[in-house]
Specification:
The complex is a heterodimer of chains A (226) and B (351). Chain A is built from 11 helices and no strands. Helices cover 79% and strands 0% of the residues of chain A. Chain B has 351 residues and is of the alpha+beta class. In chain B, the strands form 4 sheets. Chain B has a 6-stranded mixed β-sheet with strand order 7-8-9-3-10-11, sandwiched between helices. A 5-stranded antiparallel β-sheet of chain B has the order 2-1-4-5-6, with helices on one face. Chain B has a 5-stranded antiparallel β-sheet with strand order 14-13-12-15-21. In chain B, strand 13 and strand 14 form a beta hairpin. In chain B, helix 3 runs parallel beside helix 5 and helix 4 runs antiparallel to helix 5. The chains are: A mainly alpha (226), B alpha+beta (351).
Chain lengths: 226, 351
């Protein structure tokens, strides 16, 4: 059995999660502080990928990143690199699809933050960076961790947009989900089943982790901690 | 050591416009919730930005809208204690207190100072506890220690006892008073509790709807509260609208009696009298009254009285010792509202 799809899926999901961890938190932090009108509009726009079919996301991405489209053509002429049909092209797809998951959970966590903690930190002379990383983030840790794990799980399972922008090339762009589809299509039922099992195992572990985080969170709240 | 504040801020339909000064003393801002007293503290601390005005602490301008000065909260050296104490939940007591000392760059000096404050607040044993493991009183002690270790130029206490059970308050008030004494600089205390304010502060500023209505030495403010809100906030429970009927004669419309008063001014539209200043038997403004209701308190009695012949008027409360009431215990009695105890009050200034 060729393990490349597993490796490829893990690296795409891993890199996407790292990117979305920072981008999602950044967006969540600033939008949770924005005036209500702006918040409403941005919220709809940023949550859209969650409800759009992945193929629509893939189509839109191809409209921008395709070799003959605005950005795709520019990158190709300047750097000589094609943005589609490589293993990392899938990162564009997963990043867009998992962004709302991270953004929404992180925003919920930030909105439950007790701002007086930040204010008193400022009055004590603590820098805003210190307050963000040492007070605000630990306070919102559970929500943000849960969001990260969910985003990672969703990234692992991304199929629609990925197959459109990265395609299926064995040993180059194949991920677990595209491989399963390909194997089923070519009637290789035994191998498809193996990959399904691998995928189930990973998802099981991830969801278990989410559950444990949430339980820990509930327990911490129960004993009066915040 | 001093503070001078003169600021304006509009927030929707609410407008804050306060001006006061305080020296090396404890000044209490006394007001009902929503009157802008916490907002005033936030403006001083730099968390909220006033629209206009200036704030000067110890000769250092923290905010001046004309000179375009607006120091960050970090630069202000203002020690603000929140109602909920705002201890960092992810840090132990020791770590919480260390955050207050971060301005001091010399590491040894910092650690020495932290230890010193930990000891003087009796927190050594609690060093490794997290805030949620502490009682309300202990949390308050940690919050105070954390602020004092940051060497503030002024101390702002926002409703310091409101998060505590009432039986704890008395003891903690003593603790805070001794902290204030050893702090020795200007302290601003925000509260809605007149007893607490009277015990803790030297001066009092009565706030109502974003304005300071009366300000001065605490005994003077309690003796002559000046406005209806001031009288209510300092605990005067008998208040009536008045109509002028002659020189130094008024008709108390809510009570249904005519009264003689001292030095009536045009601005006075209300009259008030504290419940323990009402006098049975003899004296000025003597009226025959019917007893409407007798309310027993743990250590006193409140007798509600209505002038004979009046109907549907607001009864006047008389608070007295249980022993004294036992001597009267009548359905009817003569009641005096002594002229020297009557408070002539202005109405709400912006109502």
């Amino acid at each position: 059995m060729d393990w490349f799809p597993l490796l490829n899926s893990l690296r795409i999901a891993g890199i996407s999660t790292v990117i979305i961890f920072f981008v999602g938190i950044f967006a969540a932090y600033y939008i949770s502080k924005a005036p209500r009108a702006i918040k409403g509009v941005l919220d709809v726009f940023l949550t859209l990928p969650l409800v759009l079919p992945p193929t629509v996301v893939g189509y839109l991405l191809l409209r921008i990143l395709g070799p003959k489209r605005v950005i795709g053509a520019w990158v190709l002429s300047v750097f000589g690199v094609k943005l589609t049909m490589t293993w990392w092209s899938a990162i564009f797809a997963t990043v867009v699809v998992i962004f709302p998951l991270m953004y929404r959970t992180a925003r919920g966590a930030f909105e439950s933050f007790d701002e007086t903690l930040a204010y008193s930190g400022q009055s004590l002379g603590l820098s805003n960076t210190y307050i963000f990383w040492r007070i605000r983030m630990p306070y919102c840790k559970q929500g943000i961790l849960a969001g990260t794990v969910l985003a990672f799980a969703r990234a692992l399972g991304e199929y629609g947009a990925t197959s459109m922008i990265a395609g299926y090339t064995p040993g180059r762009t194949a991920t677990i989900s595209t491989t399963v589809y390909q194997l089923w299509r070519t009637n290789d039922d035994a191998l498809a089943f193996k990959w399904v099992m691998v995928n189930m195992a990973i998802s099981f572990v991830v969801l278990l982790a989410v559950n444990m985080l949430e339980k820990k969170h509930a327990a911490a709240k129960g004993k009066g901690g915040r | 050591m001093s503070i001078s504040v003169d600021i304006e801020k509009k927030l929707g339909s609410f407008s804050l416009k306060v001006k006061f000064e305080a020296d090396n003393e404890t000044l209490a801002l006394l007001g009902a919730s929503g009157c802008g007293k916490s907002m005033t503290l936030k403006c001083i601390a730099g968390i909220e930005k006033p629209d206009k005005g200036c704030i000067v602490v110890d000769g250092i301008t923290l905010f001046d809208s004309e000179k375009k000065i607006n120091l960050s909260p970090q630069e202000r050296h203002v020690g603000l204690m929140f109602q909920n104490y705002a201890l960092f939940p992810n840090m132990t007591v020791l770590q919480n207190i260390r955050t207050g000392a971060k301005r001091e760059k010399d590491k040894d000096k910092r650690e020495r100072f932290v230890q010193q404050v930990m000891d003087s607040f009796g927190l050594a044993e609690l060093a490794d506890h997290y805030p949620h493991q502490l009682s309300g009183g202990q949390q308050q002690r940690v919050a105070l220690a954390r602020i004092l270790v940051s060497d503030p130029h002024i101390l702002l206490l926002d409703e310091p006892f409101s998060a505590l059970d009432s039986h704890l308050r008395f003891r903690l008030e003593q603790e805070v008073r001794s902290v204030i004494r050893s702090f020795g600089k200007t302290v601003l205390l925000v509260s809605h509790d007149r007893d607490e304010v009277y015990r803790m502060a030297d001066s009092i500023a009565v706030m109502n709807d974003g304005r300071i209505e009366a300000c001065g030495e605490k005994k003077a403010v309690f003796a002559v509260p000046g406005t209806k809100t001031g009288a209510m906030l300092t605990g005067c429970k008998n208040i009536s609208r008045i109509d002028r009927t002659g020189q130094n004669r008024v008709y108390a419309a809510d009570w249904g009696i005519e009264l003689s008063v001292n030095a009536l001014t045009d601005a006075a539209t209300y009259v008030g009298i504290r419940m323990h200043d009402v006098c049975p038997g003899t004296g000025d403004n003597l009226t025959l009254c019917k007893v409407v209701e007798v309310i027993e308190n743990p250590f006193s009695v409140t007798v509600l009285l209505r002038p004979d012949g009046a109907e549907n008027t607001v009864p006047i409360g008389w608070e007295t010792e249980k022993e004294i009431w036992k001597k009267y215990q009548a359905d009817e009695l003569y009641m005096s509202l002594p002229m020297n105890s009557l408070l002539l009050l202005e109405g709400d200034k912006n109502a």
